[in-house]
Amino acid sequence: MEKLDPIPVPTYMSVDEVAWQKWHKYVTNVVDIEKKKVIWNHNGRGKETLDRFYHALGPDHCERIEAVASDGAKGCLSSTREHAPDALIVLDHFHVKKYLNDALDAVRKEELKKARQENDGELSRILHCNKRFILMQNKVTHKKRDLLDRLSRLNERVYQAMLLKEQFLSIYGAGDWKIAQISLKEWIIATIKSKIPAFVDLGYKFFRKRHYVLNYFICKITSAISEGINNKIKRLKRMAYGYRDVKYFLLKIHQHCGLLNPRLST
Fold this sequence. Notes:
Layout: E1 12-21, E2 25-32, E3 37-43, H1 47-57, H2 59-62, E4 67-70, H3 74-83, E5 88-91, H4 93-117, H5 121-127, H6 132-136, H7 142-154, H8 156-169, H9 177-194, H10 197-208, H11 210-214, H12 224-239, H13 246-257
Parallel strand pairs: 1-4, 4-5
Antiparallel strand pairs: 1-2, 2-3
Helix pairs in contact: 1-3, 4-5, 4-8, 7-8, 8-9, 9-10, 12-13
C-alpha cells in the first residue's frame, strides 16, 4: 500500500524526500501541515513522482490547496505550478538555512586547505572540522562570538561569509513582506560584491527563487513537521536494519507517521 484511498485533501502541505536505500534511492512524502501526518508517499522523487500525487488528488481537490512548503527543488516547483497554480509556494526556511550552511562550509574548507599549506596553525585550529558545529550555529553564543572575533583578525574571507549568513537570517525577523523584499535585495547585492564563489552562486539562486523566499512572509508555513517526520522515518529504518521492499517501507511510514497509525483508532 503506497497511499490512502481516498487521499485527505490538504489546505497546507509540505513535500520532502528521504533516502530508503543507498545509491540515491528515495521516497517522496506529502505531509498535511495541519494534521501533522503523512497523507501520501511514493517511491522516487522529482516532478513525475509528485505529479502522481496531484493526479490522484484530482483537479477539483488541487484547487483547495492554499500553500505548499518545499525545499525549492525544480521538480516540486514545476509540478505544483502545473497542477495547483493558485497555491502559494513557500521556500522553506529550514532548507534555506541548510543552503547557507553549505556555502559557509565550502568557504571554511577552502580556507582550511590554504591555512594548512601555509602552516598557519592558529587558523587551522579555528577552521578544523571539530569547530564546524560552532560556526554553523544559528544562535550567537559566547563561543561563536569569540570565534568571530578571532576570524575577523585572521581570515577576512570566512569572517565575511559568516556575516553574510547572519545578515540573511536577520531577514526572517522582518515585520512584513515589503521590508523582507528590500532586505533580500540588499543581501543578494552584497553576496555578488563579496566575490566569494559559494555565496555568489547562492545569491543568484535566491534571486531566481526570491518570490518563493518572500512567500514565507505571506503564509508562514514551514516543512518543520516534515523534518521531524523524516527523523522518525530514519529511526524506523535503523530499527529494522533497512528495508528491501519499498512498498512495505511506504506502508510502515503510513503506520508510524500517517493516518494508518493504529493508536489513532483507539
